[in-house]
Design a protein that fits this description.
two-stranded antiparallel sheet, 270 residues, TIM Barrel, 10 strands, alpha/beta, eight-stranded parallel barrel
Length: 270
């Protein structure tokens, strides 16, 4: 193996757009299929929504690397050392935190990624991202390279609770945040308007306020709604994570199932 290359971090530094896609499955061949399109900068493993093991994280990170993508993981809110350290050790180069309620929650999540000298709680770990402390392609990975790997990890936050959106200025003052994404689905539940998403003026206002606050502070904001892409581009958004393996399978099953049942109905076999 080699030290994971953080493509996403470089694109952010260069001010360029970023494009990703989501996947639920731990079948790494699927990750390679996505990567072999050469159309995505990263693939986001939405671990919050399904079962996985630490072994899966290593295989996923490796599949991303061999196809030239970064590996991102969407984690549950709790900034536990176990949840955060395992994908980092495996070689994931970006982490998306969810369901935070306060600026202090956000601060704890950032600290769980950063090393102790940077005000964090993370330390030197002999994981896959450091070649297990031994030679990588004939030479040891230096401690300085490991520190750079950790420092370059891209940290994202979902803004999906009312309390976090209300305190967005304080939240975005927490050092270490690279990108946010407003979650209209969860936010609609948080304010007692489940399912309204972009239909509610209250939700739209909160989303625009959070995105504008991020823009003022030089923090990127991301969109993952395929039918809203142009509207977000008009807002100045450069970052998109669209589609998923689950949605693709649903669309495939709907199309194939509908076609065969229509054919059987026309043949009067149903």
């Amino acid at each position: 193996m080699m030290m994971p290359r953080n493509k996403l971090r470089q694109l952010l530094r260069d001010g360029k757009p970023t494009v990703g896609t989501h996947f639920y499955s731990t079948w790494t061949n699927l990750v390679e299929i996505i990567g072999n399109t050469q159309l995505f900068d990263y693939a986001e493993f939405v671990s919050q929504y399904g079962p996985y093991t630490p072994h899966d994280l290593h295989h996923i990170a490796r599949a991303c690397e061999v196809t030239g993508m970064d590996a991102m993981i969407k984690l549950d809110q709790a900034p536990s050392p176990f949840l955060v350290s395992k994908p980092i050790q495996a070689g994931f180069t970006s982490i998306l935190f969810t369901d935070c309620a306060t600026a202090e929650d956000v601060r704890k999540c950032v600290k769980s990624v950063k090393l102790i000298p940077q005000g964090g709680t993370n330390g030197l770990q002999l994981g896959r991202n450091w070649g297990y402390g031994i030679a990588v392609r004939g030479r040891p990975v230096t401690t300085a390279e490991y520190v750079k790997f950790i420092d370059d990890i891209v940290i994202l936050f979902m803004i999906e609770t009312k309390t976090l959106a209300d305190d967005i200025e304080e939240v975005l003052s927490v050092p270490g945040i690279d990108m946010i994404q407003f979650g209209p689905g969860d936010y609609s539940v948080a304010i007692g308007q489940p399912g309204e998403r972009y239909k509610s003026a209250q939700i739209t206002e909160a989303m625009e306020r959070c995105n504008l606050a991020a823009k003022r502070k030089g923090i990127r904001f991301r969109c993952e709604d395929e039918d809203q892409v142009q509207a977000w581009i008009d807002m100045g958004c450069k970052d998109f994570c669209l589609g998923s393996d689950a949605r693709a399978i649903w669309d495939y099953a709907q199309r194939i199932g509908t076609n065969i049942r229509n054919d059987l109905a026309e043949a009067k076999l149903l």
